Amino acid sequence: MATEAIAAPTPEREAFYEKIAGSNLAPLWERLHGLVTAQPVTPCLPAIWHYRDVRPYLMQAGGLISAEEATRRVLILENPGLKGQTSITHSLFAGLQLILPGEVAPAHRHTQSALRFIIEGKGAYTAVDGERTTMRPGDFVITPSWTWHDHGNDTQEPMVWLDGLDIPIVRLLDASFAEPGEAEMQAVARPESDNAARFANNLAPVDWQPAVKTSPVFNYPYARTRESLDVLARNEDPDPCHGHKLRYVNPASGDFAMPTIGAFIQLLPKGFATRPYRSTDGTVFVAVEGSGESRVGDQILRWEPRDVFVVPSWARVSHQASDEAVLFSYSDRPVQQKLGLFREQRGNA
Ligand SMILES: [Fe+2]
């Protein structure tokens, strides 16, 4: 199929298009060039949300609506190129969730998978299928598809995390199911750390077989992630495009920790500037430590800890770290890889 030709409009053609529209028909030749493009074309724009600007709005939302009434008190990080679509990229959702001291975000479950990346506060919990995990800044917590989950904050401080979900993917496939829990809080079925003891130490119960594609580990604590980055930074030269970069894995399969969302953590040494890189997975970044800037296409995004920014599909990105910096990121890479669609390009070639 040619992608270049654009048929010239003529009165006869226009009349024909109008006539067939009544029969739910349309001419592909009028649309083909916009559908089968020579390279990715996305309405998604590069954008950054500075935490210092967003936090006051989050706290105002805290006075406006309770976590219980809202079900989830979340401000959507909506891509300026995707207004009204509740998306940060075409395939992914991002939001900042606030839970105040004493509050509970009630139990429910849905087919959408969620990750939490902890931004501020420590000691609140997420419960997944009857087990609580305490969340600390930089922790990567998963609530797998169709698992019961609720959140609670028994501390004295507000707690904020980034919610990353595959809502647009599930919407594309018309595969959304959801139900509320019978009680606001799940009954605790197992003590905290039970899950980590079973699955997070390169061990698994002897007869256990994975029943789902999501990792059996549901909290990847930042303390351990940071330790890995530290050791790598001492032992190897940084990759020219990524610095020291790791992906979160499902220990049962070696695949990504979630079937629809790939999550990554990278360390950029102080003063390090990466070579340009682009890939087909539009990516959401969170600055965890350090400050710096990222050039995305011809835009410069300057970040400091807790800022969130987005790099659209196939946009060239290069990062420069003023101090030693750590960036968390997530994208739809597992989906693209399984469909054979993923492409990347290192440098300016
Ligand atoms: Fe949820």
Overview of the structural elements:
By secondary structure, the chain is of the alpha+beta class. The chain is built from eight helices and 22 strands. The protein has helices at 11-21, 32-35, 51-64, 67-70, 167-172, 194-199, 222-235, 333-338, and strands spanning 47-49, 74-76, 93-99, 104-110, 114-120, 125-128, 131-134, 140-143, 149-152, 159-165, 178-180, 219-220, 244-247, 262-268, 277-279, 283-289, 292-296, 299-303, 308-311, 317-321, 325-331, 344-346. It starts with 10 loop residues before the first helix and ends with a strand.
TL;DR of this structure?
By secondary structure, the protein is of the alpha+beta class.
Low-confidence stretches: none
| Largest sheet composition | 6 strands, antiparallel
DSSP summary: helix tally: 8
Average pLDDT score: 96
Alpha-beta content class:
alpha+beta
